[in-house]
Amino acid sequence: xxxxxxxxxxxxxxxxxxxxxxxxxDNLQIRQSSLSTHLRKLRRxxxxxxxxxxQRVYYRPGRGAHPQSADCxxxxx
Length: 77
What we know:
Blueprint (H helix, E strand, L loop, with lengths): L4 H9 L5 E2 H8 L3 H13 L3 E6 L2 E6 L16
Antiparallel strand pairs: 1-3, 2-3
Helix pairs in contact: 1-3
């Protein structure tokens, strides 16, 4: 499981595609330090992928990830 309401909100925010770190924080009202921690955990689960463009980092759903699903992040079974 994703394990955190914030991570689920972040993950669902990405359902429309790639979003910058700053835009995610601004839209969800989450401090950048907390947001970075949550995104790191989602990256480790391979639920989000990143792309760096100069100094900006963009996030998007990982392959096979379904942001609309409430049980996203559950181990394959």
